[in-house]
C-alpha cells in the first residue's frame, strides 16, 4: 500500500534559461544532468554555507524541480527570484503537491538517479534501502505519524544532510558530507560559495563531521538546531533533524568518539550508528 507522508516542498524552475540559471547558483553541474535524471544538490551562500539541500530533478529539457525533503520551498523560491534578472526563467512553488512512499509491490523501483514519470508526478529511488518517493499533485488529509517517523529515520540512517530554517547557513559542504552523496562539483564554473568550498576541499581545514546517533525511543525527538553536548555541558555539535529514536547531527571532528548527549537537563545519551546505503 502506498502511504502519504507530507506536503512536497518543491520549486519548479522552467524556461529557456532554466538550466543555465540553476547551474550558476547550485553546487552540481546542472548542464550535465540528463533529462529524466536527478541528483542531490545544494545552494550555498557567499560564505560557502548551505542554505538549502534538495533533490534536483531534470524533468524536461527546460524544466527542473528542486524538492526539499526538509525545509521551506517558498523561502527558497523567493530568495532565488532575486537572481533572475533578465534570464528567461520562471520560478514557482508547487503548493498543492504531496510526497508519498510507494509500495514496492505496487510500483517498479526506478533505476538509481533516474525519474519515473507516474500519475502526473515523479517517482525516484532514495538511499536507505528499497524505498521510492513519489512527488505529485494533490493533497491528502490522511495522517500517519508512524509512517512519517519511519521515513525520517531512514533519512537519518542514510545520512541525508537535510536542513531547515534552524540550521540554514550554519554548515559548509564538508561538514554536511555533500561529496559522499555526489551533491557538489569542484570542477564546474562558479557558483555562490564555491571558492570557500573548494579551498576546504583541496587544502583541508574542515573540523566538523556528519554523524548519525541512536537514543532511547521513549524520549521525544529533539528539534533541529538542538545542541549536542558533552557530559560537562561543553558544546560538541548540533542536531540537523531526528526521528523517534535516531538523529543526524554535525559534531566537532573526533568528538563522535566521546560520550555525547542532548540537553543537560535530560541527559539523553547518544551512540553512533553507521550509515546505510
From TrEMBL:
InterPro entries reported in the protein's UniProt record: TrmE/GcvT-like, YgfZ/GCV_T_CS, YgfZ/GcvT
Superkingdom classification of source: Bacteria
UniProt keyword list: Transit peptide
GO biological process: iron-sulfur cluster assembly
SUPFAM superfamilies the UniProt entry points to: Folate-binding domain
PANTHER family (alphabetical): TRANSFERASE CAF17, MITOCHONDRIAL-RELATED
Protein name, UniProt field: Folate-binding protein
Amino acid at each position: 500500500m502506498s502511504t502519504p507522508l507530507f506536503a512536497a516542498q518543491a520549486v519548479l524552475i522552467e524556461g529557456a534559461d532554466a538550466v543555465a540559471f540553476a547551474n550558476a547558483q547550485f553546487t552540481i553541474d546542472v548542464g550535465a544532468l540528463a533529462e529524466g535524471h536527478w541528483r542531490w544538490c545544494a545552494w550555498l551562500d557567499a560564505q560557502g554555507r548551505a542554505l538549502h539541500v534538495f533533490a534536483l530533478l531534470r524533468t524536461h529539457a527546460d524544466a527542473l524541480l528542486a524538492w526539499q525533503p526538509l525545509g521551506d520551498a517558498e523561502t527558497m523560491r523567493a530568495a532565488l527570484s532575486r537572481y533572475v534578472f533578465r534570464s528567461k526563467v520562471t520560478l514557482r512553488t508547487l503548493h498543492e503537491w504531496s510526497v508519498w512512499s510507494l509500495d514496492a509491490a505496487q510500483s517498479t523501483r526506478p533505476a538509481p538517479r533516474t525519474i519515473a514519470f507516474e500519475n502526473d508526478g515523479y517517482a525516484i529511488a532514495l538511499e536507505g534501502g528499497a524505498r521510492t518517493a513519489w512527488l505529485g499533485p494533490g493533497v491528502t488529509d490522511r495522517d500517519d505519524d508512524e509512517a512519517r517517523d519511519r521515513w525520517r529515520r531512514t533519512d537519518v540512517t542514510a545520512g541525508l544532510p537535510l536542513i531547515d530554517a534552524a540550521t540554514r547557513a550554519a554548515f559548509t559542504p564538508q561538514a554536511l558530507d555533500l561529496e559522499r552523496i555526489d551533491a557538489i562539483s569542484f570542477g564546474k564554473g562558479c557558483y555562490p560559495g564555491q571558492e570557500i568550498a573548494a579551498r576546504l576541499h583541496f587544502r583541508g581545514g574542515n573540523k566538523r563531521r556528519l554523524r548519525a546517533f541512536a537514543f532511547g525511543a521513549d524520549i521525544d525527538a529533539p528539534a533541529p538546531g538542538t545542541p549536542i553536548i558533552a557530559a560537562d555541558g561543553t558544546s560538541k555539535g548540533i542536531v540537523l533533524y531526528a526521528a523517534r529514536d535516531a538523529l543526524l547531527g554535525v559534531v566537532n571532528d573526533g568528538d563522535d568518539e566521546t560520550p555525547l548527549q542532548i540537553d543537560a537537563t535530560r541527559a539523553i545519551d547518544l551512540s553512533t550508528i553507521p550509515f546505510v546505503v
